[in-house]
Amino acid sequence: MSIDARIEPLSGALPSINWRWDSETDILSGAFKGNRKSGGLTGTVELTDAEGSVAVLDVNNGVICGLDVVVWPEVTTGPDLHVPAKLTDGRVVLPSRPSRPGVASLEVDTSLSVQTNSAESVFHLQIGAKRPVECVRAADNFYVEVDQQGVLAGFWLTNVPPFTAMEEDS
């Protein structure tokens, strides 16, 4: 199943996001305040795949405002992994759809894959097969990919702190 998405111009300053690890669960999380007044789901969209991987999108008034990588797919390492050079600053908005009152989460079955650089400071979470995309800078350190058909295609997470830096002292 795919998730339709559209790109809107950014109004105001580029939001800031900081990635953080939960040392007990290996969950990587980051979110920022949405800057849209109305128009869509406020809650979560859970991306799951057949292998058991889970990523959760934070959505505020239809705008993707964060991501939690909860259960990791197999991570591959590529030394030359970089965010695409051609970027658009903007918001990525999930379309408004009539829903039942009180519905604040959706679950979408898809396929997920993750690549990282050798320092594990850049992660690329891909939804489905590799395809041409537009890369949108939704916040500093957070980029959202939308394909040519207007379907959510992936995420780039940059300046991710090392997991070991967050481990608790014994």
Cα radius of gyration in angstroms: 15 Å
Helix content: under 10%
Shape: globular
Q: Give start-end ranges of low-pLDDT stretches.
A: 165-170
- Report the order of strands and helices: EEEEEEEEEEEEEE
Q: Count of helices?
A: 0
Number of strands: 14
What's the pLDDT, averaged over the residues?
88
Question: Mind summarizing the main beta sheet?
Answer: 8 strands, mixed
Name the strands of the widest sheet in spatial order. Answer: 1-8-12-13-14-11-10-7
- Strand proportion, as a percent range, falls in over 45%
- How many separate domains? 1
Helix-strand makeup class: mainly beta
**What separation lies between the terminal Cα atoms?**
44 Å
Structural overview:
- This protein has strands at 6-9, 20-22, 27-31, 43-48, 54-60, 63-71, 75-77, 88-93, 105-109, 112-116, 123-127, 133-139, 142-147, 152-157.
- The strands form 2 sheets. The chain has an 8-stranded mixed beta sheet with strand order 1-8-12-13-14-11-10-7, with no helix packed on it. It has a 6-stranded mixed beta sheet with strand order 2-3-6-5-4-9, with no helix packed on it.
- The protein has one domain (6-166).
- With 170 residues, it is mainly beta.
- A hairpin with a 4-residue loop joins strand 2 and strand 3 (27-31).
Write the layout of secondary structure elements.
Layout: E1 6-9, E2 20-22, E3 27-31, E4 43-48, E5 54-60, E6 63-71, E7 75-77, E8 88-93, E9 105-109, E10 112-116, E11 123-127, E12 133-139, E13 142-147, E14 152-157
Parallel strand pairs: 4-9, 7-10, 8-12
Antiparallel strand pairs: 1-8, 2-3, 3-6, 4-5, 5-6, 10-11, 11-14, 12-13, 13-14
